[in-house]
TrEMBL record:
Domain of life: Bacteria
CDD domains linked to this entry: ABC_HisP_GlnQ
This protein's record includes keyword NAD: no
Membrane topology: Peripheral membrane protein
InterPro entries membership: AAA+_ATPase, ABC_ATPase_HisP-typ, ABC_transporter-like_ATP-bd, ABC_transporter-like_CS, MetN_ABC_transporter-like, P-loop_NTPase
Record's protein name: Polar amino acid transport system ATP-binding protein
Molecular function via GO: ABC-type amino acid transporter activity; ATP binding; ATP hydrolysis activity
Gene Ontology cellular component annotations, sorted alphabetically: plasma membrane
Keywords: ATP-binding, Cell membrane, Membrane, Nucleotide-binding, Transport
Keyword rRNA-binding: no
Amino acid sequence: MSIIELKNIRKSFGTIEVIHDISFSVKKGEVVCIIGPSGSGKSTLLRCINGLETYQGGEIRVHGDRVDTASKSIRRIRTRVAMVFQRFNLFPHMTALENVAEGPIYVKKEPREKALEHARELLTRVGLAAKADSYPPQLSGGQQQRVAIARALGMQPDAILFDEPTSALDPELVGEVLAVMRSLAAEGMTMVVVTHEMGFAREVADRVLFLDGGVLVEQGPPEEVLSRPQNPRTQDFLRRVL
Ligand code: ADP
Ligand code: MG
């Protein structure tokens, strides 16, 4: 069963088309990694999937529901597909615990006590039980990103989209975030991960997509796309990053 389905997606900013006819789907429990040079459209594609951006052509469906920013179902789709950003995007004036519980309380209308209890469990799951009462500025980048992952999980999403979740981190903090993502993958979470971490993609991805200039150039299992890329553009990109 496909949780996310993109068919012939086209996206323009003004008169410039930045996503050209992209189709792919993501099944339940699948981990799809998207790689590609800066400016190739990776973030824009993720933002279209959870309705943060409109698209001009084709169709995106989440669990069969059409992603249409103008429709009433968009709020429901956004709660089903969580997003983790490069720059954490936590509320600085709220504790880690409050950051995780905020969505369940205000968006999902869960009772406060129950939401706080669940938020504590989620912080434990990402290894941050001891930091529940800390504010984001008191946490390292790696800890903030783990809070952001706990917050995404708090919405009990069907899938999580990650947009370069480790790119803003000091190198020594990358591992702790990737470890949490690995454990989510092992638990069967459906994930779409834009990343430059080729080791992670090789190890965790079921499928790797290579984007270049808004075109989905190549896709397949990591051992094919990363080790034996067929397309010269993929070969050239990998030569530069590996
Ligand atoms: P990536 O995430 O792969 O680096 P992006 O999705 O951020 O690429 O950008 C894809 C293209 O769309 C780039 O040419 C970028 O300049 C353009 N773009 C992204 N966001 C906007 C925007 N809000 N307005 C205009 N152009 C944009
Ligand atoms: Mg980007």
